[in-house]
Amino acid sequence: MSDDASQAKGNFKRFIPEGDSLERLVCVDCGFINYENPKIVVGSVVHEGGKILLCRRAINPRKGFWTLPAGFMEQHETTTEGAMREALEEATAKIEIEALLAVYSIPRLSQVQLIYRAHLATPGIAPGPESEEVGFFSFDEIARKELAFPSVHWALGHFRAVADQAHFPPFANPPGELGDLKPEGL
Amino acid sequence: MSDDASQAKGNFKRFIPEGDSLERLVCVDCGFINYENPKIVVGSVVHEGGKILLCRRAINPRKGFWTLPAGFMEQHETTTEGAMREALEEATAKIEIEALLAVYSIPRLSQVQLIYRAHLATPGIAPGPESEEVGFFSFDEIARKELAFPSVHWALGHFRAVADQAHFPPFANPPGELGDLKPEGL
Question: Nearest-CA distance from B177 to chain A in Å?
Fold first, then answer.
């Protein structure tokens, strides 16, 4: 676990610490090891009258493409707090979490995505600083080729698969899929 | 996401980067920002004939106390690969994952725990380097006060609650619980 105090004055170099088997970021002054672990993305499929909240990305990667309100979890929050914060930051949306829809692993990026199903707690959405545009879209209106990431596509499909169920086990990656962008699109 | 190449020669200091709102670990040579995010613990409740696999910790924190095979997820693996690796490392156990039992958040430690339900894929367990002792125990044999962490206690309870169900939504923290050790024990 991280130790904020010992990192504050850190002078970090990368090497394999004694007794370890992998390269780590080590403070050469105090010996503190900053273990790097996969990062957690928290987000949600926010639905309203059969339509889904999507945000057009104002930042790279995949600027201009559409994504779910989602982003890196911050320190000292819970997973649902993180998903609610991201919806607020990216779409000014106050949401209520319903259920965990999916846990996706993107090993190439060392990323784990926790995607919840949610609805608006209070009406109203507007683009946050990282979104060019936000809106609710029916499935017919969503162009697959304009989605930012494979996992957005997965989450929309998984949302539809359990749209009539209140309780369900969360989905994982579709078989054989690791979240890599393909030359032919999603 | 992390960028291994730019971290390799990093000379990291902690401050609030321009345009950000939180302190980050920044390389003062190249400007690379090493965002710190919550860490993921992957583990499993491994069951066999109504008994549960527990490991007596050979290392701190909570050396000598009993825990589930679980640990920090490494880079470039999936969540289930991580849970399988931990069972192998801590109990020399080859396991098969059945279902996601729980997603716990421990905000004080900036930790998210993904706990799976699993069974042995091949017979045989033995202590790994981080375990003093491993064994399968019935619920009557498990002493609550000898468990290492609150989340071990939660996971055992949640396992029992769905022991007869093949498909179920994963549990979250028990209401009001944030995983802090209490003076009176778990």
Answer: 11
Among B9, B40, B109, the residue with its CB nearest the CB of A38 is B40
Residues of chain B neighbouring A10 (CB-CB closer than 8 A): 12-14, 25
Cβ separation B108–A76 shorter than 8 A: yes
In angstroms, how far apart are the furthest CA atoms of chain B? Answer: 58
Choose the closest CB to B2 out of A74, A99, A110: A110
ipTM associated with this complex? 0.84
Q: Which helix (H) or strand (E) holds A113?
A: strand A111-120
Beta carbons within 8 Å of A59's beta carbon, 6+ residues apart = A130
Beta-strand relationship, A66-67 and A51-57:
antiparallel
**Residue B1 — very low, low, confident or very high, per pLDDT cuts 50/70/90?**
very low
Q: What gap in Å lies between CA A46 and CA B177, rounded to an integer?
A: 27
Q: Percentage of residues in chain A with pLDDT exceeding 70?
A: 92
pLDDT tens digit sequence for B41-87: 999 999 999 999 999 999 999 999 999 999 999 999 999 999 999 99
pTM for this model (two decimals): 0.86
Among candidates A10, A34, A168 on the partner chain, residue whose Cβ is nearest the Cβ of B169: A168
